[in-house]
Amino acid sequence: MSGLPPAPKGFLDAVGGQPMARAVADAYVRATELAWADPIRLHHRGRQSALFLDTARASLATSIGGATGVALGAEQVFFAPNMRLAAQWVAQGFLGKARFAASAIESLALIDGVSQCDPALLMLPVDEHGFADESAVAALGPAEAFVLAMQAGNIEIGTQQDLGSYAAAGHRLLVDASQCLGRMEIPHWSVLLAPAADWGGPAGLVVIAVQPTARWSCPLEATSGWISGRVDVPAVVAAATAAELMLPEAKAQAAQQFALTERLRTSIRAAIPDVTFAGDQHRRLPHILNCSILYVSGEALVLGLDRRGFAVASGSACVADSDRASHVLAAIGGFTGGNLRLSLPLDCTEETADDFVDALVEVVKELRAGTGM
Questions:
Q1: What is the rounded distance in angstroms from the CA atom of residue 170 to the CA atom of residue 217?
Q2: Is 33 exposed, middle or buried (0-12, 13-18, 19+ CB in 10 A)?
Q3: What is the mean pLDDT of residues 314-338?
Q4: Mean pLDDT of all residues in 344-362
């Protein structure tokens, strides 16, 4: 794919990160050389940094606007160093003494951040596919009194929430767009949170976009859009460069990735007995596939596959330790043991998918033999 680096061989954990393109790395290095000064300073070096920052901020507004179909200006884009802080800061800005509700499968970072603003955060049940209970949302009361904090598509099981119905009912939406920009339509949101690492930008940067109709006001000073300490200009420049490169490619590859995860689902089900798949099969992120395999542990699966050259994930996508049970699977009543989550990088091939299934069959056979199954 032009301009983007190929994914490492056997790498099937795009949620965990992806390599930085050469053009992105070059932009980052160039910004460290020329935009190292504090952009709020009035001297030449400060104004030079401000120029880099303003250009990158405007570029991100254009890229996010293009990916969501919403016209944005640079002044509607902000930055935070992590999702938890971004969610906390954004939640504080909703006007009208808003209360918050979130589904039971939201990321722990989103839940923790919003809870700092609203300790009485209401948790909404979900069905077996991960869709929020619409009757529970309707029972909240007047829509204008509640902000719904939800992922557009769950990064663990892929299920896409029906944000349009909630927006039509009058709810404001704090939308976690992790792994979603460019991969699905996101036309309904009040405030959008998106980690730059999702599209090959630097880790440690969450981009925040605010709709002008959101009934939201900047709760604390955000110098040049940065909400915590001094702005990291090179990181913003790299994020903007990566968005220009990757987001159009992700949209173009969505159908291809959806077909590839379906190929994996069919092959795994045919080759391995006692496997269950989580999430909705149709309304889901195109590149994510989650399955649980009975009689083996998720950690053992990850390590066995790693020895065969395949990088996958297990357990909760919200925590670092792979053997921690997934609160998402627990919320949908799914089996939390023997869990694998695949998230395909761009340009993943059928050959890679087929080789992965062969390796998975070998690992499961080996592990089950060890337990006498």
A1: 18
A2: exposed
A3: 73
A4: 95
Query: Model confidence at 213, in pLDDT bands (50, 70, 90)?
Result: confident
Backbone angles phi, psi at 304, to 5 degrees: -65, -40
Angstrom distance (rounded) from CA 194 to CA 178: 5
Place 176 in a pLDDT band, splitting at 50, 70 and 90: very high
d(CA 195, CA 235): 12
CB atoms within 10 A of CB 140: 16
* Domains of the chain with CATH codes: 21-247 (3.40.640.10), 250-371 (3.90.1150.10)
Among 195, 223, 190, which Cα is nearest to 318's? 195
Q: CA-based angle 79:97:131, to the nearest 5?
A: 70
Contact present, 219 and 40 (Cβ < 8 Å):
no
Distance CA 124, CA 132 (A): 7
In this model, does residue 143 exceed pLDDT 90? no
Angle (CA) 126 129 132, round 5° = 30
From CA 51, how far away is CA 31, in angstroms rounded? 11
- Among 264, 208, 223, which Cα is nearest to 90's? 208
Q: What is the Cα gyration radius of the chain?
A: 21
DSSP 8-state secondary structure symbol assigned to residue 206: E
What is the CA angle 287-292-293, rounded to 5?
A: 125
Q: What is the pLDDT of residues 272-308, one digit of tens each?
A: 999 999 999 999 999 999 999 999 999 999 999 999 9
Tokens of residue 200, six digits:
């090959």
DSSP letter string over 37-91?
Answer: S-TT--SHHHHHHHHHHHHHHHHHHHHHHHHHT----GGGEEEESSHHHHHHHHH
* Mean pLDDT for the stretch of residues 260-282: 96
**C-beta separation of 65 from 71 below 8 A:** yes
- 159-172: pLDDT as tens digits: 999 999 999 999 99
